Structure prediction request, 154 residues.
Amino acid sequence: MKLSFALAPLFAAAAFAQNVLITAPHQNQTVGEGSSITVSIERPDFQSSSEEVAVVIALQPCRPKCFPGEGLGKVLYNGPYNPEVHSGNTQPYQNFTVQVTPGLMGYAVLSVTHMALIGVSLLWRWWFFALKLSVLQAGPIAWTEQQNVTLYVL
Ligand SMILES: *[C@@H]1O[C@H](CO)[C@@H](O)[C@H](O)[C@H]1NC(C)=O
Ligand SMILES: *[C@@H]1O[C@H](CO)[C@@H](O)[C@H](O)[C@H]1NC(C)=O
Prediction:
């Protein structure tokens, strides 16, 4: 049996479940150059076996086109990510206050690069449930993903 082929979709699904959401600012929001904005990063709750590491929040001007995923542009925040449940919100999130690059004008891509460690237990459950296979895995795997929103800087 081709093990890696069979496990690939399950692995992708488990990894996909670790994605975060940018809930603020919203798509196409107008922000002032040099102003402070709140970037709200939500991590849906069902990911109990992932361990958060860090996020990098960056702002890349579009000249004139936006190419998310190419260069990060200016790094506005680089550090730990500790989403928490706040009252009135059912999903854990963390707010970051960052400064929009002074002198920037026009469209820009705000990206959030998210790093987490995906625990063995989650993958184990997926694999066992679907395939009834025993797979030995040494420790968690490192997981990185990127989300972005386009902003208009005035
Ligand atoms: C954002 O703006 C672009 C270009 O004006 C437009 O095509 C797109 O539909 C807008 N998206 C949202 C979610 O408003
Ligand atoms: C986080 O930011 C959002 C958007 O600005 C705001 O609605 C929310 O109240 C903030 N939460 C906390 C705990 O400051």
Summary: Residues 20-117+145-153 form a domain with the Immunoglobulin-like fold (CATH 2.60.40.2550).
